[in-house]
Design goal:
By secondary structure, the chain is mostly beta strands. The protein has one domain (2-105): Ribonuclease Inhibitor (Leucine-rich repeat, LRR (right-handed beta-alpha superhelix)), CATH 3.80.10.10. The protein has one helix at residues 102-105; strands at 2-5, 22-26, 45-49, 68-72, 91-95. The protein has a five-stranded parallel β-sheet, with no helix packed on it. The longest helix has 4 residues, at 102-105. The protein is globular, with a radius of gyration of 12 Å. The mean pLDDT is 93. It comes from Nymphaea colorata. This is Disease resistance R13L4/SHOC-2-like LRR domain-containing protein.
Length: 107
């Protein structure tokens, strides 16, 4: 489990943690999540909380072990690429992510 807070940038090296099961990003000032997050194939839970500056996240379709996804107060985030391809997803919580269009995400 990795919990990171108040970051301006998530290092690309995060993708090397291939056994990581939980990643929580909180109160950060990141505008994007690196593409390498898509290599965390054992990730079961991803939480992005109070990441108000976050605009983009990479395609998460390779995160086939992901069971829980929570996006909270990610006001500028417009899309979650690959969401519709997550076959193990059991819980999706979206809170105060006004720019997200669910219709586009489930196509």
């Amino acid at each position: 489990k990795v919990v990171l807070g108040s970051l301006r940038e998530l290092p690309e090296e995060i993708g090397r943690l291939t056994s990581l099961r939980v990643l929580q990003l909180a109160e950060g000032h990141m505008q994007k999540i690196p593409e390498s997050v898509g290599r965390l194939t054992n990730l079961q839970e991803l939480k992005e909380i109070l990441c108000a500056d976050l605009k983009t996240i990479p395609d998460i379709s390779n995160l086939q072990a992901l069971r829980r996804l929570r996006l909270s107060n990610c006001y500028r985030l417009m899309d979650v690429p690959g969401l519709s391809k997550l076959r193990c997803l059991e819980s999706l919580k979206l809170d105060a992510c006004e720019a997200l269009d669910m219709n586009d995400m489930i196509k």
